[in-house]
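User: Please run a holo structure prediction.
Assistant: Happy to. Please share the sequence and the ligand.
User: Here you go; the ligand is adenosine-5'-diphosphate.
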Amino acid sequence: MIEVRGLTKQYGNVRAVDDLTFTVQPGIITGFLGPNGAGKSTTMRMILGLDTPTAGSALIDGAPYSSLKNPLGKVGALLDAKALHPNRSAANHLKWIAQANGIPTSRVREVLDLVGLSKVASKKAGGFSLGMGQRLGLACALLGDPEILILDEPVNGLDPEGIRWVREFLRALAAQGRTILVSSHLLSEMAQTADHLVVIGQGRLVADSSTYDFIKQNSSSHVIVRASDIDVLANSLADQGLVSSRELDEEGRERLIVEGVSTDQVGQVAFSYGVSLFELSERRASLEEAFMEMTGHTVQYQASLKQEGA
Ligand code: ADP
């Protein structure tokens, strides 16, 4: 389990991570989601003891990373898949890390098999495609057969086939009971991969819930209805336990907004109470829009547009 408590990182006048508190549980994939610059990498680096927090703590099974006796056996990480020695073969790269960490070199062949790189084990990593580089990065992370995996944007730049492979691979690792924290700036990708989401924006926690609840809460839809007698319709809906509010359309006509219902239900109520409908439609708030709004992405984007224009 990973426990992050009040974690904060200040770089000069930039607060990269701001009082973050969350827990990462074993047996599931936890998606660490936020737009670029939200503070995901900084958080992961602090969990791995590569950066010192300004305040707060990050514990791995109750202890800081720096106090782990066998760190690679406990936590595997993929931070920057491009950080490879270009002239070293995949196998030699892994052997070098294994030897430096007291891991038997027989494990190298196992991890190359696991990530599907056995056939190119003797090829130089410098000639690898992005997808092969990511696989090699995952092989490194798995060398010590760790219980916990921390992966920063493992699907960044991969083609759909590569993305699917990583997703299936992480699912299998989670099913073995491992703890998996995987970051991404892509909501669509995380929604398909993660069981649980920790969402941050501008260093702050904005959501910590199951992916199912996150989607349900943030992709609300409502029905818009205009009718012959709006008071009768509002009362009829209320009789059925349905809450509605009023708004004026662009032509100044009053209409009802009904949350959490289908157009079928509203049409049926209107029919039973003898109300004629003039307009009946559904308005769906996009999950992507909700995500951008909650993470402050739109604000940052607008600010950078202004700078470019200045
Ligand atoms: P993410 O991984 O979500 O894209 P980062 O953790 O890389 O976000 O960055 C969060 C913020 O901290 C950004 O504003 C970034 O510019 C800043 N930042 C990250 N690392 C440093 C550093 N070493 N020095 C100064 N600022 C940094």
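The radius of gyration is 25 Å.
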